[in-house]
Design a protein that fits this description.
By secondary structure, the protein is α+β, with helices and mostly antiparallel strands. Helices cover about 40% and strands about 10% of the residues. Helix 2 (about 80-90) crosses helix 3 (about 100-125).
């Protein structure tokens, strides 16, 4: 087997590097048990812990994609008003976690605001799909998807599960079950455990 190594971090391949450079990266924590590595003679890329590195290092928890070690949510994000502020503050944050209460308070806000917009449009005799409802839909489209994806991350599921909503009826039922599920304890691939 070759002594030159390649390793992948944040979706990019790095290398070739010598064995001594590789060992130095292991010692500093740049290469962890879950880091994909490859060298000539290997069939495919493997996590370092499975590529013969398990005896050299203890298994480490998966690295969160965000470099932060604290919850990015607002301190009051688990309250009725705080969930609305947090939803708009993190409107394109698809990489962290949101608790059950953050998701459901946001959902309640969307229901209340939708009724209010429909009422205003009805008073203006513009029907349910008037300009106020349209503006509300545009303003809350991305934040609503982001909160839903962060909620999936909080239970340890990838955000791609959100696409199950495209399956009629069953998709909605599955998502509601996921959104009612208790948060995964401790840190996971999407960050530290959120404040409850």
């Amino acid at each position: 087997m070759s002594t030159e190594w390649y390793y992948a971090t944040e979706g990019a391949s790095n290398g070739p590097i010598t064995q001594s450079e590789f060992d130095a990266l292991v010692e500093t924590g740049t290469i962890r048990s879950d880091t994909l590595v490859w060298q000539e003679g290997m069939d495919d890329w493997l996590p370092y812990g499975r590529a013969g590195g398990a005896e050299k290092m203890a298994a480490l928890p998966p690295r969160a994609p965000m470099g932060d070690h604290e919850d990015p949510a607002r301190a009051d994000a688990n309250t009725f008003l705080g969930a609305l502020k947090d939803g708009f503050a993190r409107y394109v944050d698809f990489r962290t976690r949101s608790t059950r209460s953050q998701y459901w308070w946001w959902t309640l806000w969307m229901i209340v605001l939708s009724f209010g917009a429909a009422l205003i449009d009805g008073m203006l005799t513009l029907g349910d799909s008037g300009p106020v409802n349209l503006l509300l839909s545009l303003a809350t489209f991305l934040p609503s998807i982001a909160v839903g994806i962060r909620r999936l991350h909080d239970i340890g599921r990838t955000g791609w599960w959100f696409l199950i909503v495209l399956v009629p009826v069953i998709g909605w039922i599955v998502l509601i079950v996921f959104y009612c599920t208790k948060s995964q304890e401790g840190p996971n691939n999407w960050g530290p455990e959120p404040r409850h």
